[in-house]
Amino acid sequence: DSGVTQTPKHLITATGQRVTLRCSPRSGDLSVYWYQQSLDQGLQFLIQYYNGEERAKGNILERFSAQQFPDLHSELNLSSLELGDSALYFCASSVRDIPDRELFFGEGSRLTVL
Amino acid sequence: AQTVTQSQPEMSVQEAETVTLSCTYDTSESNYYLFWYKQPPSRQMILVIRQEAYKQQNATENRFSVNFQKAAKSFSLKISDSQLGDTAMYFCAFMKHIQGAQKLVFGQGTRLTINP
Question: Mean pLDDT, 10 residues at a time, over chain A (114 residues)?
Fold first, then answer.
């Protein structure tokens, strides 16, 4: 158990819908990272937050947004969903804002868009 | 542009054998960090080993070791005395600077199967 909690574990929805994925980092970790894992794109970095502020942005679509709350949990919002958004979404956390040490990953949220 | 390349999509070895997974990366930086992560069927990503580029000595963690060739930008993972529990996807990752921040970039992964 990495200490990172992601909910829901599985989610099935339809195209055009909106979903929210939630992540609770390890106790004491200030940095949260979101990654998307799909079969054809591999693991893609989406966005990073550190202590409530956006720190780095990767290949995140405009239809997607995220935030980190004062209690350090984070949410990834996916809207106007398309079939291609079906993927495993990972949250990871670390103590610092630089991922030079270990990132602790959650078990992921598997999103299926029908 | 692809920053991290794993040229072996799949590999398969017998239990107790030694296997080496390849990884190359592209960077103009002199100081950076490299990682190998393991993703078993449970799908959780687990850190296997970490290497700091300024350290010449290759990192070792029990049965896992790396061959870090900085000039060649190569970072291979060697698994000795392989076990059934080593069956997993293995991802090489590189920490890079982007837009004033640092992010971890993963390769496409190598699916490793250990056969009994």
Answer: 93 97 95 90 89 90 97 97 96 83 90 97
